Amino acid sequence: MSRSENVILTNMCLIEDGQGNIVMQIRDPEMYAWSGAALPGGHIEEKESLHGSVVREIYEETGLTIKNPRLVGVKHWHTGEGIRYLVFLYKTNEFTGTIRSSEEGEVRWIARKDLATMDLAYDMLNLLRIFDQENLSELFYAERLEDDFVREFW
C-alpha cells in the first residue's frame, strides 16, 4: 500500500480588525464554482513555505500585508478524482495597508454579526467554527451525500 497521494495545497486567512469586522472576498458565481463571500487565500506554490504562501496570497488578493498569521487548523476532502484538497487555516489581527479588490473578487470589511444574512460560500459558517473554537482544529469532509457533505470536526 502506497503512503503517498496527490495533494492540492491551499490556504485561507481570517483577518480581524479588533472591532468585530473581518475581511471577506465576494467571489463571482460566473467565474468560480465556489462562489459567495469567503475568506481570502489561495494556492501554495511549488517550493513555497506555508507561511510565505499565506502572506503572499493575502497581499495579492486584498492589498494587506499580514503579520504573525497563526495556523489554527485545516480543512480537507478528496476530490472526485481522488486528490486530497488541503486548506491550511490561518488567523491574524496584525496587518498593514488598505484593502483593495482584485480580479478574484470584491474585498471588504464585513461585520461578523452580519455573516448569517449574507450569501456566503459553501459551508462558511461551519468553517468559521475552526477559527473560533479552540477545541476544534480540523474540518474533514468524509463523503458526499446528494448535495451535501458529511462533516467531521476534530
From TrEMBL:
<dbReference type="Pfam" id="PF00293">
    <property type="entry name" value="NUDIX"/>
</dbReference>
<dbReference type="InterPro" id="IPR015797">
    <property type="entry name" value="NUDIX_hydrolase-like_dom_sf"/>
</dbReference>
<dbReference type="InterPro" id="IPR000086">
    <property type="entry name" value="NUDIX_hydrolase_dom"/>
</dbReference>
<dbReference type="GO" id="GO:0016787">
    <property type="term" value="F:hydrolase activity"/>
</dbReference>
<feature type="domain" description="Nudix hydrolase">
    <location>
        <begin position="1"/>
        <end position="132"/>
    </location>
</feature>
<keyword id="KW-0378">Hydrolase</keyword>
<protein>
    <submittedName>
        <fullName>MutT-like protein</fullName>
    </submittedName>
</protein>
